[in-house]
Write a structure and sequence with these properties.
The strands form 7 sheets. A 7-stranded mixed beta sheet has the order 5-1-27-4-16-14-15, sandwiched between helices. Strands 7, 8, 9, 10, 11 and 13 form a 6-stranded mixed beta sheet that branches. By secondary structure, the protein is of the alpha/beta class. Strand 7 and strand 8 form a beta hairpin. The protein is built from 27 helices and 27 strands. It is elongated, with a radius of gyration of 31 Å. InterPro entries: Nucleotide-bd_a/b_plait_sf, RBD_domain_sf, REX1-like_exo, REXO1/3/4-like, Ribonucl_H, RNaseH-like_sf, RNaseH_sf, RRM_dom. This is RNA exonuclease 5. Keywords: Exonuclease, Hydrolase, Nuclease, Repeat, RNA-binding.
Length: 748
C-alpha cells in the first residue's frame, strides 16, 4: 500500500476511557475503538504512493485526520490542505477510493480470529485504531455534519446564468479550456478523446477487464473534421446484476432522433431509478426489445466514421456493452479546474440558455439530453475555446452551487479549505457522486445526501454482487457489510480469553535446574531477552523450574529460540510455553505473526541503552533503509525501556541490520518483530485482575462451543474466514490507482 496489478501494501500507518465492550482491531482494548487498514493499488508509471510513517504512542488516527486524507485524495494539493500526518504522492494518478466497512466487527474479532483473517492481515501493511465512533460512524469519517439551513434561495438562481457573467472577473490565461485547446478555434478531430484519455476515464476498450463480452460498433473509418456527429444518451435501472439499459436515444446532427428504444433488462429489476430515468414498471412491462437488439440496430445505423457525443459517455457505452473508438464527451470537452466536471444541466443553461432535467418532470428525457450534448459539441466547434473561456463557467458554477446550498458565494479554493468541508462537498465540486452500498436494515444520513447514490440490498451477498458491478463506475465508494456483533456477556468472556492467550504466549517455563543453581545469574540471563513482568521459582517438580512472564511476545520467543536445549548452570534445560487450549496453536500463530506484512521489515532488539538512538544515528550510513526507531517508555516513570523496535523500508534491510546489531560490536539480542504497536497498546490496557495464572484451563462459553460443533455459517469464526476471502477477491478486482480502506468500527 509492483507491477500494474500488484498491490504492494502501502497502508496508512500510522484513549479515551470508556466502559469496556467489543473493541475494534488495530490496537485498542477499549470499548468502541475502531480499526482501519489502508492500501493503494498503483499504476505502472508514476504511482500514487502513500507514506505513512507515524509512530505515535497510542497508534491512533483521529476521524478528522482520516477525513483530511480522503479529501486530499479527491481534490489534490491545489485545492485542499495536505494531510497533517501522512504524505500522498502523485495524487493525480489516484483513480478511485474504496472504503469497506465491516459493521459489527471489532478489534476483538480480528485478534480472536487472526488466522481466519488471512487476507486482511497479509495484504494491508499497517493497522491503526480510531477513536470511539459516535452514533453515526460514517459521518465522522467523511466529515458530514449537520448544517443549519438558511432557507429556500432557489429564486436567487432563477433565469439564465449568463446574466451574472458581467459580475465575475475573467482571466483567460489560466482558464483550463485555453490551457488545453489554446485560444483559436479547433476542428472536430482535436475534440476527440485519445485512446490514453479513454483509458484514464474508464471507457470500454478492447482487451480491457470487464469488456470481454462487449460488442464493437465496427466503426473504423477515417475520421475528418467533417465526420458526422451523433448525440447518445442512455437510461439505466438497477437489477440483480447491477445497472442495465432501459432506454437508448440517438440524435443525428440536424437534431432528428434516429433511434429511441425502450429495452427490457435480462435480469430481475430491483430499482427502476424513476427519478433519473423516468422509467416505471408500467412503461417497461410490454417491452420485448432486448440489449442484443439495440446493439444490432446501433451497429447498422452508424456510418464507419461516426463520432458519438455524450455527457459522461463512458457510462452509456458500458450500459450498451459496446465499444466505439471515436467519442466526444462534453463533461470532458468543457474542461473544469482540478479535474472536476460540469453537470449537463448547468452547461445547457450557461451555454445554450435552455433548461433540461427540470425537477417538475418525472426523470430525464434521454432524447433531450442526447440533443443537448450534440448542441454543446457544435457550439464548441463553432465559437471556439476563447468564447467559452470568456463566459467564466467556473465562477458561475461556484456561484450557483453556493447559492443552492444556502451559503454566501466564495472562492472555490476557500470553500474546500474550510475545516468542516465534507468529502461529499469535495466530490460535488468535482462534479462526482459517492456510491454507498449497504443493507436495507442499516440507516445513515448518507442515504439522504443529494450527492450520494445509495443502493440498499437485502443481504451481504447482494452487497458484494452489487459492489463488483458498481464500484468501478464511481470515483469514491463506501461498501458496508453488516454482521451480528458479540453479545455483551460473550464479549466480556472473549476479552478475558484473548488477554489470557497473549499473556500465556508471552510466558515460558524453563528447567530443570540444579538445586544449587545461581538464581541471580539466571534472572540476569532471562532478563537479557526483554522486559520481565514476573519471574517465579516452580518447586512442584523434582528439580526446580522457572516461570518467566515477559511483557512482549518477542522476548518470550527469543528466550525459547536461544535457550531451549542448551546447557545452563550445568544442566540441559528445556524452555517452552505452558500447554493449554489457548496455546496449542502458538507455533503456527508465531509463524503467521512473523509473516504479517505489518511486521515484515521491523526488528525487535533487547539490551539497548539510554544512548542507543544517538549511537544508531551516528552510524546511520550502515543501517540503510531505516525509517523509524521506536523506543517504548515506562508509562509511570517515563524512562526509556531496555528494548526497542526498528522499522526498515524492506525485509532485506531489516535482516542485514539484525545481523550487525547481534554481532560483537553491538552485542544486542534480537529477532524479527511479531507484534504490531497497536497490539501493545491493547495489551497495556489489560487490568491485572483479569489475568489468570498460566496453565489454568478456561472453559469456552457453551454458546460458542455449540456453534463451532455445528459449524453454523453465521458464527463469527466462520464469517471471518468466508468474508475475509470474499472481500479479498473483490479487492483484487479493483483497478490500478485505487486507495482502499477497511474499517472495523466496533460496536457499543
Amino acid at each position: 500500500m509492483e507491477s500494474q496489478r500488484e498491490r504492494a501494501g502501502k497502508h496508512l500507518k500510522k484513549g479515551r476511557k470508556r466502559r469496556r465492550g467489543p473493541n475494534m482491531l488495530v490496537g485498542a482494548a477499549e470499548a468502541m475503538r475502531a480499526r482501519w487498514e489502508l492500501e493503494e493499488s498503483q499504476p505502472e508509471a508514476k504511482k500514487a504512493r502513500l507514506s505513512t510513517i507515524l509512530f505515535v504512542e497510542n497508534c491512533e488516527v483521529t476521524h478528522e485526520q482520516l477525513c483530511e486524507l480522503l479529501k486530499y485524495a479527491v481534490l489534490g494539493n491545489s485545492s485542499v490542505s495536505k494531510p497533517s500526518w501522512c504524505q500522498l504522492f502523485h495524487q493525480n494518478q489516484l483513480n478511485n477510493v474504496v472504503i469497506f466497512v465491516l459493521q459489527g466487527m471489532s478489534q476483538l474479532h480480528f485478534y480472536r480470529f487472526y488466522m481466519e483473517f488471512g487476507f486482511l492481515r497479509k495484504a494491508f501493511t499497517h493497522k491503526f485504531r480510531l477513536p470511539p465512533p459516535s452514533s453515526n460512524f460514517l459521518n465522522d469519517i467523511i466529515g458530514l455534519q449537520k448544517k443549519q439551513t438558511i432557507g429556500d434561495l432557489s429564486k436567487m438562481v432563477e433565469g439564465s446564468l449568463l446574466s451574472t457573467s458581467s459580475k465575475v472577473s475573467i482571466s483567460l490565461q489560466n482558464d483550463p479550456i485555453i490551457q488545453k485547446y489554446g485560444s483559436k478555434k479547433v476542428g472536430l478531430t482535436r475534440c476527440l478523446l485519445t485512446k490514453e484519455e479513454m483509458k484514464t476515464f474508464h471507457f470500454p476498450l478492447q482487451g480491457f477487464p470487464y469488456c470481454e463480452n462487449f460488442v464493437p460498433t465496427k466503426c473504423n473509418g477515417s475520421i475528418t473534421d467533417n465526420s458526422p456527429l451523433f448525440g447518445l444518451d442512455c437510461e439505466m435501472c438497477l437489477t440483480s446484476k447491477g445497472r442495465e439499459l432501459t432506454r437508448i436515444s440517438l440524435v443525428a446532427e440536424g437534431g432528428c432522433c434516429v433511434m429511441d428504444e425502450l429495452v427490457k433488462p435480462d435480469n430481475k429489476i430491483l430499482d427502476y431509478l424513476t427519478s433519473f430515468s423516468g422509467i416505471t414498471k408500467k412503461i417497461l412491462n410490454p417491452v420485448t426489445t432486448k440489449l442484443k437488439d439495440v446493439q444490432r440496430q446501433l451497429k447498422a445505423l452508424l456510418p464507419p466514421d461516426a463520432v458519438l457525443v455524450g455527457h459522461s459517455l463512458d457510462l452509456d457505452l458500458r450500459a450498451l456493452k459496446m465499444i466505439h473508438p471515436y467519442v466526444i464527451d462534453t463533461s470532458l470537452l468543457y474542461v473544469r479546474e482540478q479535474g472536476r466536471r460540469f453537470k449537463l444541466k448547468f452547461l445547457a443553461k450557461a451555454i445554450l440558455g435552455k433548461d433540461v432535467q427540470c425537477p417538475d418532470r418525472l426523470g430525464h428525457d434521454a432524447t433531450e439530453d442526447a440533443r443537448t450534448t450534440l448542441e454543446l459539441a457544435r457550439y464548441f466547434l463553432k465559437y471556439g475555446p476563447r468564447k467559452i473561456a470568456e463566459l467564466n463557467l467556473e465562477a458561475l458554477a461556484s456561484h450557483q452551487e453556493l447559492l443552492a446550498a444556502g451559503q454566501e458565494p466564495r472562492n472555490t479554493a476557500e470553500v474546500v479549505q474550510q475545516p468542516n468541508t465534507s468529502v461529499l462537498e469535495c466530490l460535488d465540486l468535482m462534479g462526482q457522486k459517492l456510491l454507498f452500498l449497504t443493507r436495507e436494515a442499516e440507516t445513515s444520513e448518507l442515504s439522504s445526501s443529494r450527492n450520494c447514490q445509495t443502493i440498499k440490498c437485502l443481504s451481504n451477498k447482494e452487497v458484494l454482487e452489487q459492489a463488483r458491478v458498481e464500484v468501478p463506475l464511481f470515483p469514491f465508494s463506501i461498501v458496508q457489510f453488516s454482521f451480528e456483533p458479540f453479545s455483551p456477556i460473550f464479549t466480556e468472556e472473549m476479552n478475558k480469553r484473548m488477554r489470557s492467550k497473549w499473556t500465556e504466549m508471552s510466558t515460558v517455563y524453563a528447567g530443570p535446574f540444579s538445586k544449587y543453581c545461581n538464581l541471580r545469574a539466571l534472572k540476569r540471563l532471562f532478563k537479557s531477552f526483554g522486559p520481565v513482568r514476573s519471574m517465579s521459582l516452580v518447586l512442584e517438580t523434582h528439580q526446580p523450574h522457572l516461570c518467566i512472564q515477559y511483557e512482549v511476545l518477542e522476548a518470550a520467543q527469543l528466550a525459547i529460540e536461544s535457550l531451549d536445549g542448551i546447557l545452563v548452570e550445568g544442566a540441559c534445560i528445556k524452555v517452552q510455553r505452558p500447554v493449554t487450549e489457548l496455546t496449542l496453536d502458538s507455533s503456527n500463530l508465531v509463524k503467521e505473526l512473523e509473516q504479517d506484512s505489518e511486521n515484515r521489515g521491523t526488528i525487535y532488539l533487547s539490551g539497548v541503552s539510554q544512548t542507543f538512538k544517538e549511537h544508531l544515528m551516528q552510524q546511520s550510513n550502515v543501517f540503510l533503509g531505516l525509517e523509524a526507531v521506536i523506543l517504548p517508555k515506562d508509562l509511570k516513570s517515563g524512562k526509556q525501556k531496555t528494548y526497542c523496535f526498528l522499522k526498515f523500508r524492506t525485509f532485506g534491510s531489516a535482516q542485514r541490520a539484525l545481523n550487525i546489531l547481534k554481532g560483537k560490536d553491538w552485542k544486542l539480542k534480537g529477532r524479527h518483530a511479531l507484534t504490531p504497536r497497536h497490539l501493545h497498546a491493547w495489551l497495556r490496557g489489560i487490568p491485572p485482575e483479569s489475568r489468570r495464572t498460566p496453565g489454568v484451563r478456561v472453559i469456552p462459553p457453551p454458546s460458542e462451543k455449540q456453534a463451532l460443533q455445528v459449524l453454523k455459517v453465521d458464527h463469527p469464526k466462520v464469517a471471518a474466514w468466508r468474508w475475509g476471502r470474499k472481500i479479498g477477491k473483490l479487492y483484487h478486482s479493483l483497478g490500478p490507482g485505487t486507495l482502499c480502506l477497511i474499517l472495523l468500527p466496533g460496536t457499543k
